Structures
1.
Amino acid sequence: MTTSHPHIALPPLIAHRGLSAHAPENTLAAVKAAHEAGFQWVELDVQLLGDGTPVIWHDATLKRCSDGHGRLATLDLAMVRKLDVGAWFGDGFRGERMATLSEMLDLLVSLEMGVNMELKVSSRRSGTELAEAVIPRLLEALPAERLIVSSFDQPALRQARAIADASLLPIGVLSESVPNKWQSRCEALDAYSIHTDWTRLTARRAREIKAAGYRLLCYTPNDPAAFASRWSWGVDSAISDDPGLYADIAPPPTTAVR
């Protein structure tokens, strides 16, 4: 692992898709809610509309989290501006609009928040194209100490690394379960961290990762009691829908196992 990574004061708790247990996921409202609740880092998803506009959105379609239908790959910004992406969650969020990457970055900068930005590549889309559209904007807006870019898509991560070296762009390798060849994959990308499903992580693998010098993040543990043993394995951060549940359980940053 390189020694040129920026020093990131990574918190033990990161709000998944913003504070998604209390506000519509991946919206400006969800990020504001996370900040108001005292969480300084959020995890968000970015992908491209059909016209190439990067937007903060998880699914390939509109159905689950809006009042519209269709695939993002067939839409342009004018079309998605008409959508309500908050009413599905609750009347208090009626009128919320899909956030562009630029709008979200402006908010993160104004709140001085950190972000784990996942490059979300749906079927038949180009991870390379997504990275080319997103990475320069991230680098311009945020200091490396408040940024991690992650993805399941290897072409997206390779292109991200081609754009910026490890001193400027911390990369997180996303994997549902950590594969046997995890270290060679991380070394090829000069990665900063590994992000994995907490239910598939083993103590042995966690300790291998930590011994090799990588940060270890787990998604999406929403049961603090069930997750509690993972801190002793060396997990650095839990990416949770409702991190406030951890108030009496998560180790504070100064005592978390590293």
2.
Amino acid sequence: MAKKKTVFFCTECGNETLKWAGRCPACGAWNTVVEQEIQPVNRGARSGDGRNSGFHSVKAVSLTEIDTTEEVRFLTGMGELDRVLGGGGVKGSLALVGGAPGVGKSTLMLQICGSLCRENQTLYVSGEESVRQLKLRAQRLGVASANLLVLSETRLEDVLQSVSEEEPDILIVDSIQTLYNGALDSPPGSIAQVKDCTMALMQLAKGRDITVFVIGHVNKEGSIAGPKVLEHMVDCVLYFEGEQHSSCRILRAAKNRFGATNEIGVFEMLDNGLKEVENPSQMLLSGRPDGAPGTCVTCVMEGIRPVLAEIQALLAPAPYGSARRSSNGFDYNRASMLLAVLEKRGGLKVSTCDAYLNIIGGLTLDEPAADLAAVLALASSYLDRPIAPDLAAIGEVGLTGELRVVNNLDQRLSEVRRLGFRRCVIPRRKGKAAEGPEGLQVVEAANIGEAIRAALGK
């Protein structure tokens, strides 16, 4: 009996090696190399083979002969999703939507079917629900259309056969981990199955000009389960995020070949489905306590959209002599740096205190414009003095305690004024007068000491 051949895959980057290693030689990740048996594939029955999938052979064409005048984008019916996609879906593209269990991935995909089916025939394939369960969920979401076809199937060959018979414009697969190719002996969700099924769907999208949305689960680290090469194969990777006990949901693009990756979409999960939040700043600031120390509002840019976010800080004496640092939604290393600057340049003895930073609403602030608001929130908690509820802060903090101007400052100030704030602390601008929108008092500060005195009266 011939010995079965095996190959080793890295679950993070998809790199293949002939022997096992504790550390992947390509990406350097530890304990990610797993063994996978190489299965002989019947080329005549292979799902991705163009001769058996209805694909016609093509030849290379000159770049100057390609016509791009035809509009290839279409609206999904949800403005927040269209914003993240870069203006709508793209025909012939393959998009991967990932998220934690129960966050609302299937609800989002089924809900957009109500708008897509008005002009396009859509096939919704579910490997996790029966057609009756899909019908009940569609009724709850108010989705009903003769152009919406549903199929409960996990075998890739049967799915491709249904696509060949129905010829839909849009295909939705829920989820890629439940799909399997019968030509392989590997179980569904394995590296070989996920790679083969994704490759078949990619060839389907490109060969027949069908838009394919694929739902993927995430692992405990928060990344999409399966090999990392899965994200390299698709055209767009969307992450649907949200706290388990919060109704706020945020959709962000980690990869987009047809648009920017710095846009976000904000939704609210209700009993009858997802509701778009056109004004996320107002939603994120709702429930903000009045007169409580340790909270400050800043304005960050999510793509071209200014969004107001609340930063909360808590400083408490360290009981065991070793101070603890924790941050949620704020970079840990940057928070540690700001604490060191606050002690060295601001004169506050924070090294003996446990420090906690939290961003309300599940946002992740990764730009330096939120530095000043974080410093003011920390100083407010340390001094136990509340910041005025009508004051916001925008600015970057350097290691010497100086404040630096950030980009799109005028647009940020306009958003701050629109949400009802009366004062805003910003870095001092050389050669330019402190001007802001009508009704907003702009307070300039050169360093964190001046900013703390302006916000807290220290």
